[in-house]
Amino acid sequence: MANPSILILAGDGIGPEVMAEVKKIITWYGDKRDLAFDVSEDLVGGAAYDVHGVPLADETMAKAQEVDAVLLGAVGGPKYDVLDFSVKPERGLLRLRKEMDLFANLRPAQCFDALADFSSLKKDVVAGLDIMIVRELTSGVYFGQPRGITTLEDGSRVGINTQHYTTEEIRRVARSAFELAKRRGNKVCSMEKANVMESGILWREEVQWVHDNEYPEVELSHMFADNGAMQLVRWPKQFDVILTDNLFGDILSDCAAMLTGSLGMLPSASLGAPMENGRPKAMYEPVHGSAPDIAGQGKANPIACILSFAMALRFSFDQGEEATRLEKAIEKVLADGVRTADLMGPEGGTPVSTAQMGDKIIEALEASL
Ligand code: NAD
Ligand code: IPM
Ligand code: MN
What we know:
By secondary structure, the protein is α/β, with parallel strands linked by helices. The protein has helices at about 15-30, 45-50, 60-65, 90-100, 125, 165-180, 200-215, 225-235, 245-255, 305-315, 320-335, 355-365; strands at about 5-10, 40, 70-75, 105-110, 130-135, 150, 155-160, 185-190, 220-225, 240-245, 270-275, 280-285, 340, 350.
């Protein structure tokens, strides 16, 4: 049987730096665990614009549709700020999500014991934290019509984006959240602004419908998203699975990142409906961006990107035990005090570069054999 296929789209800024560490880990799995992948690489974001004049070439889009999993680094950067909106690096990422129909973005926020002291919140607020944000990824205000900037008769301008959700778009992502909850703490908290937005009212009603008709055994609660942001910082351990829309999910997940210590720690899986082989179409991407302020300096934390590959092992390649091995290796390295700059607090530790962090994780993988 052919090896499972992976398309790597490292992108811009720290994307290629953190992805280099994932590549080492993929090679390790081939050499040491007899888990070989057919890996190909291509361009996305500014890197694609520089070569093709677009942030995602049609051929790259076609390849992404073919492979078992896409691994994405990050896109964007100040160099591309001047570009027309239609060819900005971020459009390449949004096209991948939309055309692959990756509607459920799983963003787990777990606080590793070794980092509980490091969070900007008190230790007992974050220690042992394990929550899962399920962000709708292919609709909402990111894609709704009408949109654009128009000039009115009096010469003033209007910027328009439209929050837009259909019954089915809400129901399918709600099912993803309930399914996950059943395998975790059996609780879903859905967040919207039903107090001010009609789309929020529909969201709440449809999530409740999926619950009542298909998952009555899962505990469901609803919260306004602004209160949700506050509760995430006040007492995040009250949550198990948080279900929310595209824009609120973007913001709430960056917020949740800081519960884990750093944005450089948060992985994600963007999943579509199951394909013929029973696996979902999938792209794995760290939650962070291209971090222009530290790009090219060997400072980036590769753990978010490596943990995203662990999610690929679990969700696309049916290798749950190997995913756990990788997560445990990361836990061990952190427990040993190994720290990239973003994780370095007053209590100190062994400072390492991006590449050294990757090497330490490989050492821990070796030790696990
Ligand atoms: P960012 O996530 O790139 O950076 C925010 C802050 O977090 C910066 O201080 C950065 O140094 C730090 N940081 C992020 N990842 C880190 C890591 N792995 N290790 C250590 N520190 C890390 O967000 P931004 O600065 O708002 O955006 C920069 C560019 O990235 C923009 O063009 C934006 O559109 C793009 N972006 C892309 C993605 C993506 O590709 N998925 C996500 C978010 C932002
Ligand atoms: C993310 C990013 C993206 C988003 C951008 C870069 C398109 O912030 O993945 O969190 O807004 O979804
Ligand atoms: Mn974001």
